[in-house]
């Protein structure tokens, strides 16, 4: 493998990692319609919660678990 190929490969890896990060950040940003049911456990999400958090995708229980795990970085 020559030098240019290695450079190309490294660039692709960086690109892929960046795309992953952007995708996971985007997933966490509330936007659009709120889910009627939790995407994790399938429980229905209270209308009040959906109104308070536009684009909410998780029920209170799953949101708490996620917050405790500190995945919102
Ligand atoms: Zn849930």
From TrEMBL:
SUPFAM superfamilies: Glucocorticoid receptor-like (DNA-binding domain)
Chain positions of all zinc fingers (dksA C4-type): 38-62
UniProt-listed InterPro entries: Znf_DskA_TraR
Entry keyword set: Metal-binding, Zinc, Zinc-finger
Domain Zinc finger DksA/TraR C4-type per the UniProt entry, residue ranges: 37-66
Any one GO MF annotation of this record: zinc ion binding
PROSITE patterns xref list: ZF_DKSA_2
GO biological process annotation, one example: positive regulation of secondary metabolite biosynthetic process
Protein name: Transcriptional regulator, TraR/DksA family
Originating species: Neptunomonas antarctica
Taxonomic classification: Bacteria, Pseudomonadati, Pseudomonadota, Gammaproteobacteria, Oceanospirillales
